[in-house]
Write a structure and sequence with these properties.
The complex is a heterodimer of chains A (about 120) and B (about 110). By secondary structure, chain A is mainly β. In chain A, a hairpin with a 2-residue loop joins strand 5 and strand 6. In chain B, about 0% of the residues lie in helices and about 55% in strands. The radius of gyration of chain B is 13 Å and the shape is globular. Chain B has about 110 residues and is mostly beta strands. The chains are: A mainly beta (about 120), B mainly beta (about 110). Chains A and B meet through strand 10 of A and strand 5, strand 9 and strand 10 of B.
């Protein structure tokens, strides 16, 4: 596709439920980032992949959060035993190369609401 | 700690000029980005500055002073479609992007 896509666009989960959020980066893009964006705030870094390697996961808020990119393209962010504080928009971004100064192209995000 | 400060909200008139300021205190500096984000949409890239000075790109310009930890985004000939949030983000010494909370720009006719 032309841009980064994410699915689902909206997800409502009951507290304690597990969720999986998908990101399809721009074809051929090397790097992939996950961010969490609370209402009225800027994105907060969660994790970063270069191809299939997860090079930085320092932003993951707890061990309930897990991300993978097994074939170096599609990525999944999984949140186990969701809590109300997990409610946010989860943004995925990709860059053409592995340079951190590259422009990040963002997907539309998945809005997660935990009841 | 790391900190990016931007005004929460600004209002300007269609056709006018507006300057959105950003000050930062980060562990290291590897460049500063400005992104535009319309409500409910993804952020889109506007500019990247790593050297001091002004970078002009059409109606939008971005300025950086590394010694002052300061940047601004200048928008000229404002159009209604420019109503959006403008996010300042700094690439720190670990090459992580540290984001400000964004400035919501409201354009009035």
């Amino acid at each position: 596709g032309a841009g980064v896509s994410q699915s689902p666009r909206y997800k409502v989960a009951k507290r304690g439920q597990d969720v999986a959020l998908r990101c399809d980066p721009i074809s051929g893009h090397v790097s992939l980032f996950w961010y969490q964006q609370a209402l009225g705030q800027g994105p907060e870094f969660l994790t970063y992949f270069q191809n299939e390697a997860q090079l930085d996961k320092s932003g993951l808020p707890s061990d309930r959060f897990f991300a993978e990119r097994p074939e170096g393209s599609v990525s999944t962010l999984k949140i186990q035993r969701t809590q109300q504080e997990d409610s946010a928009v989860y943004l995925c971004a990709s860059t053409r190369q592995g340079k951190h100064t590259d422009t990040q192209y963002f997907g539309p995000g998945t809005r997660l609401t935990v009841l | 700690g790391q900190n990016i400060d931007q005004p929460t909200e600004m209002t300007a008139t269609e056709g006018a000029i507006v300057q959105i300021n950003c000050t930062y205190q980060t562990s290291g500096f590897n460049g500063l980005f400005w992104y535009q984000q319309h409500a409910g949409e993804a952020p889109t890239f506007l500019s990247y500055n790593v050297l001091d000075g002004l970078e002009e790109k059409g109606r939008f310009s971005s300025f950086l002073s590394r010694s002052k930890g300061y940047s601004y985004l200048l928008l000229k000939e404002l159009q209604m479609k420019d109503s959006a949030s403008y996010l300042c983000a700094v690439l720190d010494s670990n090459y992580q992007l540290i984001w400000g909370a964004g400035t919501k720009l409201i354009i009035k006719p």
